[in-house]
Specification:
The protein is of the alpha/beta class. The chain has a single domain, classed as Spore Coat Polysaccharide Biosynthesis Protein SpsA, Chain A, CATH 3.90.550. Strands 3-2-1-4-7-5-8 form a 7-stranded mixed β-sheet, with helices on both faces. Strands 6-9 form a two-stranded parallel ribbon. Strand 2, helix 3 and strand 3 form a beta-alpha-beta unit.
Length: 250
């Protein structure tokens, strides 16, 4: 009897992805972000906006879109992320910020890393992350930042996950996808943290359950507004300090 190959592409169901967006007074930035997410070519996703004690028209703006709007009364990025995690129904949780502009194939590209060639889930892959592209920054800062993330962050992420190091990994806070079951095993996000070091802390705890991939292909356009507000040198020093603090803590 002649055998015919099975078309696995037609039978494999891609994992549902929940995109979580913390939002505190983001009425002026969140519209392009939601439009970009609604234009994604990924077939199965939900979008969750977590209103985090906004005092502007953020909730009014978000209600215009076909997304889920939830509220977190405790102010803080990690409180908002944890609220979104608990509300999420997806097998994978994607984290972005309210000023991010993902390309339409961002989720499709990232989801492939969680699956093998036959479309089955890779149990050893727990998270995916990629670089920020600061689209509104000075050209020199934008280019140098991308080069550093592509050619330094990636090997650092690999080295940190070697068996004799086990220092965690590199995870960009507003550009990552993590398996929901693994996040639950870690106890969720560390709400004791305010901002700096939260992504490194999450990476260290999640990496205990499998591999975190940092890929230049999973690029995310985002605003450099925080650098402009707080100062580039000051923010860079803080990022590095908290990265090393959380990476090499006991």
């Amino acid at each position: 009897m002649e055998r015919y190959p099975i078309n696995t592409q037609a039978t494999v169901k891609k994992p549902k992805i929940s995109v979580v967006i913390p939002a505190h007074n983001e009425e002026s930035t969140i519209i392009p972000t939601l439009e970009a997410l609604l234009a994604q070519d990924y077939p199965d996703l939900e979008i969750i906006v977590v209103d985090n004690v906004s005092t502007d028209r953020t909730t009014e703006v978000v209600r215009r879109f076909p997304v889920r709007l939830v509220h977190e009364a405790k102010k803080g990025l990690l409180h908002a992320r944890e609220c979104g995690r608990k509300e999420a129904r997806g097998e994978i949780i994607a984290n972005i910020d309210a000023d991010c502009l993902p390309e339409k194939d961002w989720l499709s590209k990232a989801a492939r890393y969680f699956l093998d060639k036959e479309g089955a889930t890779k149990d050893d892959i727990v998270a995916i992350s990629g670089p920020y592209d600061y689209y509104d920054a000075h050209p020199f800062f934008r280019t140098s930042s991308l080069l550093m993330q592509n050619y330094i962050y990636r090997p650092v992420a690999f080295l940190l996950q070697l068996p004799f190091v086990r220092g965690g990994a590199v995870l960009i806070g507003g550009n990552n996808l993590i398996r929901a079951d693994v996040l639950k095993k870690t106890g969720g996000y560390n709400t004791a943290l305010v901002f700096y070091g939260e992504d490194t802390d999450t990476a260290k705890r999640v990496s205990k359950y499998g591999k975190i991939i940092f890929s230049p292909k999973i690029k995310m356009k985002t605003s450099a507004r925080r650098f402009k507000q707080e100062g580039t040198i000051k923010m860079t020093v803080r990022y590095l300090f908290y990265f090393f603090k959380h990476t090499f803590r006991s």
